[in-house]
Amino acid sequence: MAKAVKQPASGTDKVALAIDIGGSHVKILTSAGGAERRADSGPGLTPQQMIETVRKLAEGLSYDVVSMGYPGPVRHDKPTRDPMNLGKGWAGFDFAAQFGKPVKVVNDALMQAIGSYEGGRMLFLGLGTGLGAAMILDNVAQPMELAHLPYRKGGSFEDYVGERGLQKRGKKKWRGYVFDIVDRLRVAMQPDYIVIGGGNVDKLDQLPANSRRGDNTRAFEGGFRLWRDKALIV
Predict the structure, then answer these.
(1) Which pTM does this prediction carry?
(2) What is the pairing mode between strands 16-21 and 25-30?
(3) How far apart are CA 104 and CA 227, in angstroms?
């Protein structure tokens, strides 16, 4: 699923609720402003429980449309398979029917990538529980499943730069693998620049060449852009 991302339009009459679903927390923010609100998620979280959590978090907030960053592959605004770090029942779930409002669902790395985009050819990599990835080429955004590409000793990229790789090999070796994998992807993808985000980017004291540090809060901006900029599904 590809999205064409236009540059920010001036004004909108719709308030968007952006939902960022992670393995540790569910976070929300509306385009009307205010403070981020969050609640714990965890490995047993089902989509219905997530909706109930969001409804409680959003008490007192007014919104017209919903954007959702989901930790897994998405097609036609619905997850295509259950996430590795949450509960069951996500694949094919109809969020629009439950919210009773228009809903756009994208991969969580793609949502943060859209919020981080500044034009040209950008590769986004999210260092967290796994390895999220997305590419935006001249305003056309595409989620990418790079995490499970083969790497060393029968392992994958994610095995070495995801959270388990960090815990298993230690920070020094983990940093070396991050630099190596970023360099390999730079050669393969030929981006103008790379944004490295995710919860573990703060564990990098230096960044690979031609990279900048991402910010998880940009996922909310990505969610707002999905509506504000009339993102076009290709």
Answers:
(1) 0.90
(2) antiparallel
(3) 8
